[in-house]
Design a protein that fits this description.
alpha/beta, NAD(P)-bd_dom_sf, globular, 7 strands, Sc_DH/Rdtase_CS, Rossmann fold, about 45% helix, seven-stranded parallel beta sheet, SDR family NAD(P)-dependent oxidoreductase, oxidoreductase
Length: about 250
């Protein structure tokens, strides 16, 4: 099993779904956690859960669309742990609507969170990661950004930007020993997919060769692998964890 004993790991968007599963997986692997989410109740509940299992975690209410939200999250982590080894940028929102029927506010919300929020995250995390001998960043994209999705062009475009950020940051940060990769999940059984499909997430399973939705824990395992020393020669890559969705 991949271990992160005494590693300091930051994860955003931990209130549910992939972010929640990822935080739990890192804690189970021995990491000490810096957690960010807009959902204060969920964040505080997760900290209590992890402490009850013998883990160590710090939660900071974080809005990635706020100009200094991510800086404050990283600063709090450094005050508590003095360094950062891994950052997982999971916070994101879904936006649906046709090109003709979509509205500009939805476009702005999607890019403020999924694109500018990621830009802010990297800017805040890089100096903290450079304090040590390097580290790893894992960004959460989507197969929608790698293939396109009718009725969700804004969301797909924002997630394609995650791939561009990941590749460019990997090249920029390689001399500093910081690896940057992304995970692109296929359909996952999460509250986001439930909202995305109007309460009918099961209909997405028909498009997956493996015939089912992913569990959040399956995506979390891919995140942990990319963040681990087992992936020490992997950078600038977007790993699709999609049940064969892109192979169709």
């Amino acid at each position: 099993m991949t271990t992160f004993t005494d590693k300091i790991v930051l994860v955003t968007g931990i209130s549910s779904g992939i972010g929640l599963a990822t935080a739990r997986a890192f804690a189970a692997a021995g990491a000490r956690l810096v957690l960010g989410s807009r959902d204060v109740a969920a964040g505080e509940a997760l900290v209590e859960e992890l402490r009850g299992r013998g883990g160590e975690a710090l939660f900071v209410a974080t809005d990635v669309t706020a100009p200094t939200g991510l800086e404050a999250l990283v600063a709090a982590g450094l005050r508590r742990f003095d360094r950062l080894d891994v950052a997982v940028n999971n916070a994101g929102i879904e936006v649906t609507g046709t090109l003709e029927g979509g509205d500009e506010d939805a476009f702005d919300r999607a890019f403020a969170t999924n694109v500018k929020g990621l830009w802010r995250a990297l800017r805040a995390q890089i100096p903290a990661l450079r304090r040590g001998t390097g580290g790893a960043i894992v960004n959460l994209g989507s197969v929608a950004g790698m293939r396109g999705m009718p009725g969700a062009s804004v969301y797909a475009t924002s997630k394609l930007a995650v791939e561009g950020f990941t590749r460019s940051a990997a090249l920029e940060l390689a001399p500093h020993g910081i690896r940057v990769n992304a995970v692109a999940p296929g359909p996952v059984a999460t509250p986001m997919l439930d909202r995305f499909t109007g309460g009918h997430p099961e209909m997405m399973a028909a498009h997956v060769p493996l015939g089912r939705l992913a569990r959040p824990e399956e995506i979390a395992r891919a995140v942990l692998w990319l963040a681990s020393d087992d992936a020490s020669y992997v950078t600038g890559t977007t790993l699709a964890v999609d049940g064969g969705f892109l192979a169709r």
